[in-house]
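In keeping with the milestone schedule agreed at the kick-off meeting, the structural modelling team has produced records for the first pair of proteins. Each record is given below as a sequence line and a structure-token line. The laboratory manager (R.T.) confirmed that both were archived under the project's standard naming scheme.
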Amino acid sequence: MKNCYIGVRLTDFVSKFIYKIENFLNKFISIYFLLSMHLLYVEIGKKDERNEGR
């Protein structure tokens, strides 16, 4: 009975840990995605300015 309880506690802990990692990764990926989109937008803006300058 005691082993079963420890197993349940362990799986609960592991699932919470995995959930935290997933949350962190989702935030990191979304921030990275926004940054890359912003940089891409800036690059396109620079190209447009160069074309208008000619």
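The second protein of the pair:
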Amino acid sequence: MTPRPSLSRAPRRAPRRAPRRALAAASVAVLAAGALAACGGGSSADNGSSADDGALAFAYDYDPAPQGYDPLLYAGDSQRLMFGSLYDSLFVMDENGDAQPSLVTDFSFNDDSSVLTLTLDTSATFSDGSTLSAQVVKDNLDRRDDPTLAAYVGFAAGGETEISDVTAEGEDTVVITFAAPQGGAAALLADQPGMIVGPDGLSDPDSLATTPDGSGSYTLSDETVKGSSYVVDLVTDDPDAGDYGFDEITFTPIVDPQARANAFVSGEVDAVLLDPETVSFVEGQGAAIVENGGLVTGLPVFDKLGATSEPFASVEVRQALNLGVDREAIAALHDGAVPSASLFPAGADGFDDTLLDDYAYDPDAAKALLADAGYPDGFSFPMITLGQNDTDLQAIQAQWAEIGVEMQIEKAASTEAAFASVNTTPLGFGQFAIGNPLGFVQGVVVGGFMNFQGASDDAITAAVGAAQGAEDDAARTEALTALDRAITDQGWYVPLYESFTSVGYDADKLAEPVFPGTLRYPLLTSFQPAS
């Protein structure tokens, strides 16, 4: 068998001190977001500074705030960078991908890890002038049953990480009771789920459409043009102001990959999230690039019960699809991508590096499994797409045709129709930045949009429970490895490949940015002036 390519990383810098309210967090899910295109620049190879030494300009791949400034409306890592400047979170992720207290000064669990007690930093001040209290945290978390708040999906009633009760005890103590043990609750309360909105924003949620109400180290500037450029100014008397390298940051969404790369090499922005297709172009201009793994592309199996396509109720059929896809051929379509048969990124705790060999392309074995499941002549099913993934889907379509499975690719009439397909088709397609694999499985694979049918699997349930209740790192790694394997073995996901995130930066102005674990966007605190 072909050996698995290694996922090399850019060298990691020495860990910085974790600020009391550092700006980094892990995501538990990746949701699609709209974007407004911004103009790219010219193609000058000399990347000059975009602003004075007190300002930083970063180019996003899409609009980080399409629905306004309530951080709980979003669940993706792409919002962390900008929203982390405006809002503090209960916990944050450090550069190793581990959750650290932020608005929390101390925390503890009960014996079975179902009750989490938080002691808060009540000096944190919101933009409305009020300060953090236990009641404010409770009022935030009590919004968890609002279906519009994507960051709270897992915490809602019936969610995989359901919170059954939140109690405020005095001014600085919050007691959170989960419906089941949650030993990894600190990571679940990092990033958007742990970001705390101030009292004014809570009392008038509509105001958050135009005005953030957070306690972050930056405030939104009047220079902001929504959808085009988001400008934030440092609060110089904020206790964490010294942890940030710039007095002003501009976040500019530029949807077109080449226009975004052009804006960087021409000096319009100081740092940029690059698409794989433009990395070689930027490298050719002599610019500095830092890479990080963790963006996993694959096919989530929505239908495990056979409700939309009867064959998908069979685990043998789902395993056949995993064996019938040539991951190496598909990964070769994307510069820098490596084949993967795992939901977990290669750098994540619990990543099972044996899956790629176990699920190496084997059409004969796939046909045998289909025959065992009662489908010796194969079957057909629809796949709804918006058109962005046609190259991958056409390759998969041809490969599955070789084992007798006809995937009928249909163009969605609208974005809404594409999202609705999770209830009407057995399979989807997506890219997921998975910084907290356990949280992603709980909130998305089992408790979120990948499982609207509410299917269950004994192996997955057992592995999740073991990871939640693990008493030491070794036990947690063992449980997470079992979980990674169970997801593929049970055919809840058809992994394809893992990509690197590439961030270009002006090395004359900036030190090398640092990522939190395997997440896609760097830590905001790591954007520091070059020494």
